């Protein structure tokens, strides 16, 4: 697997790049929206439902098909770019851009971590911000010194859950690439490669070994994440 399988190395590279890009961007976007909603506005339940909807639909086959049409060479994205005089590339068939379309799809599914962030923000006492304001702390300093430390358990939870989900991502890559992981293995997620070995080539033993490697990778990541919590996660005690 490690020494003689080039597709294994390609799948590992693509998957780790996808995780490294999609998870931080999704969490940052989710936290930003949660902070906006936490300021208080009318029809807040409606906004929460609207923003949460992509998390329910994002992993479906229908959304993956829609995404493929949006980023096709003659899709809506390129049509909008053409209105301002920009000739867009073929996002899906170009290996330089294909993975990033899946990253954008992942970030679009920010609703689930956003709801959790919003619940965490509601637990931070408002008098702490008032005291900081009286002491002359800027909004940025309040965010760095109050919001992030007190929200760190929620950030840690979302980070672990979303990273595991990113490692397990399958449907978008399968639908958008037509099951091939192309072009030039640029969207060959590890789970997609495992599927190919099991159900395209019927190498069930090898696919089982690939599955165990994925389990080990996720277990090592999770264990490492828990070991680092003492340096940046702050609980009530």
Automatic annotation (TrEMBL):
Single GO cellular component term: plasma membrane
Location relative to the cell: Cell membrane
Entry-linked Gene3D superfamilies: MetI-like (1.10.3720.10)
Domain ABC transmembrane type-1 span(s) in chain numbering: 12-225
Membrane topology: Multi-pass membrane protein
Entry-linked PROSITE patterns: ABC_TM1 (PS50928)
Main location: membrane
Gene Ontology terms describing biological process: transmembrane transport
Keywords: Cell membrane, Membrane, Transmembrane, Transmembrane helix, Transport
Chain segments annotated as transmembrane: 16-37, 49-67, 97-121, 142-161, 173-195, 207-227
Family: Belongs to the binding-protein-dependent transport system permease family.
Name the record gives this protein: Inositol transport system permease protein
Organism in which the protein naturally occurs: Salipiger mucosus DSM 16094
Organism classification: Bacteria, Pseudomonadati, Pseudomonadota, Alphaproteobacteria, Rhodobacterales
């Amino acid at each position: 697997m490690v020494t003689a399988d080039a597709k294994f190395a390609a799948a590992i590279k693509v998957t780790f790049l996808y995780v490294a890009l999609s998870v931080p961007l999704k969490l940052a976007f989710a936290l930003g929206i949660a902070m906006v909603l936490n300021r208080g506005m009318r029809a807040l339940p409606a906004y929460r439902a609207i923003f949460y909807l992509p998390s329910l639909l994002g992993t479906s086959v229908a959304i993956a098909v829609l995404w493929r049409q949006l980023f096709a060479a003659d899709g809506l994205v390129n049509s909008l770019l053409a209105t301002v005089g920009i000739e867009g590339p073929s996002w899906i068939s170009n290996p330089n851009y294909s993975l990033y379309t899946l990253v954008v799809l992942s970030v679009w599914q920010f609703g689930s971590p956003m709801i959790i962030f919003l619940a965490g923000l509601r637990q931070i006492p408002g008098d702490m911000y008032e005291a900081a304001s009286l002491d002359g702390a800027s909004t940025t300093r309040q965010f760095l010194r109050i919001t992030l430390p007190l929200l760190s358990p929620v950030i840690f939870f979302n980070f672990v859950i979303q990273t595991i989900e990113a490692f397990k991502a399958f449907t978008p890559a399968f639908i958008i690439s037509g099951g091939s992981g192309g072009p030039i293995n640029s969207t060959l997620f590890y789970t997609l490669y495992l599927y190919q070995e099991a159900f395209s080539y019927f190498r069930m033993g090898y696919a089982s070994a690939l599955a165990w490697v994925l389990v080990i990778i996720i277990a090592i990541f999770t264990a490492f994440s828990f070991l680092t919590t003492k340096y940046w996660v702050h609980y009530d005690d």
